Request: fold
Amino acid sequence: MTTKKSLVILDELTIFDNYEFLSKDSTIVIAVDFRTHEKLEEKKISHELLDNYLKNEERQKLYDFILSKYSWFDNLSQKRNYEFKNINMLSLMSPLEFHEFLLSILIKFLSIKNVLEKNHSDEIFVNKKLSEYIELIQTSTKINILPSNSNNEKGFLTDRIEIRFNIFSKPFTLYLSKKSYSFLKSKYENLICNLNNLWLDEKSTNEIILLVEFNSGLYDELISNLSKSKRQLVLLNRRRPAVLSKNSIDILKSNNVKILNYEKFSNSKSKEFTSEKNRLTENIDKLWQSEELSSLFSINGITFWPLVKDRLKKIYDYRLEDYLKFIFQSQKFLKNLNIKKIICLGESGETENILLQNIGNDIESILLQHSFLRYHPDLKNLQWRYEDQNMIELKSKKFFVWGNNDLNYFSEQSSIKKERIFVSGSPRHDKFFKSKNSIISKNILITLSPISERSGLGDVNLVLRYNQFLTNIIQKLKKINNSKIIIKLHPGENPHNSILLEHLSKIPDIVVYQTKNSKDLIVDCEFLINVSPELYDSSTIMLEALILQKPVIQLILDDESLNISPLHLPIIQIHELEDFDEIIQKLHNEEFKKSFIEQIPTELKNYLSYQNSSSAKILELIDNDS
Reply:
């Protein structure tokens, strides 16, 4: 009797415990994700990683393919059916959000396609969700459905948001529905703003500078300086409250800064709103059934529309009313208020996207750089590939960058006209130049950049390498006498953070923070180690450490670092742990360390102009343009 060849593809949602079956020689087992790999390793089940079935070259082609799909809605034959006052409702989902969602789906889709082409089996065992991928590729092999847990998804692609905090040194995460969060935010802001007279009078005739989605605690220096303008400074925050602490309330009150209550500028029960909402809902519902989308969402002659349909439908079902409401609100306050300048930190968010599509030529829009990247000349082409201004073109009329490196980078790499780019420095780092360093601290700060889904190159192998490197460097650092090891996770919402937290929980005698103020941690450290999984993406905390004259070691995990000459100043870049011991020894040589620190300010000038005076420079740039 011929033994049946079985192919089993498992992910973290699949319920499986028949390890005897998985151990058979006739069974090929594929792990889709890191947690499944860990579980199989623990049970000593031989298996392969799904990620190993898709080469980097294929992933890079997928990345380019996704970029070509950003404006998919413009290719619809009836695209005007989804527009309101020249704004296509389908365009309001963040392109970077769309990018990561679609890229993760397609990586899995083509990886499974390659698995099926390489492994000819008599039957396939998968859960219901994975079977949907397989059925689009082949229909001849019998598919057996394995039970699975419900997919209790979290994150920005769902209706739940992640709230991170620490209780003492222990990190915690909880999840809240976006509707619940919006309700609580509204009640909180009404209470605080009414008590402190922070709401902007909706009948105000003053000229206004509008700061969009700014954290008043981080940008207090900018707020203090812009409040000196002849124009009224106003904050607009839909994602997070404009005031979260007594300090932020004091900053706004002392500088006569107001908060825009956008809810006052619309009536969601009006006939026009209800009529437009019903029209758009009906048209978009019909769209999801259109064969046109099967063609638009296809690759290599195979449609993948069934894999993305439900998620996109849920996203637009959930957000449509909010999108439409803010379009009504923004068009009204842009008409009624005398807004002259709008300053944003990004352009892909829904608030910014709607505003930038709504404003006329009489309002000047300014994008303010908010991250540190341009520190190594060899990285220009690699970083440009994944740069926001390459993925989505600059919409704002002006672009304020931090330093000469940034100015030269965008002048060379982008098609942005040089007269639109201005060097302003970084206003949120003005106060870093006023901080005093701790002299006696022996803390070693390790900052962790998570693996993102932007490039599509981060996989289970990179997660395993990350965990191993992290364990090894902590073990090495523990040998340093009287040193305290502090770990700081990236504050952004990222699935990899939960894997890092799980891994760190197994390591004793370390302190882990998710949300603690980075400046306080840097001030009290001897030196900083940043773990960067992908070379194109770097953490701004490295720049902050340089400002505070702390040595910075960047540990780079991906192999792109082999294609560059590593920096030795002001950031020490290493790729292998063998180099780590040597660098640590040097940093404990007081003479070397003193000489190294003395050279940091010279290099820092290329990264950051108008040090300690960026906020004043931005006021000058804005007022001189009146």
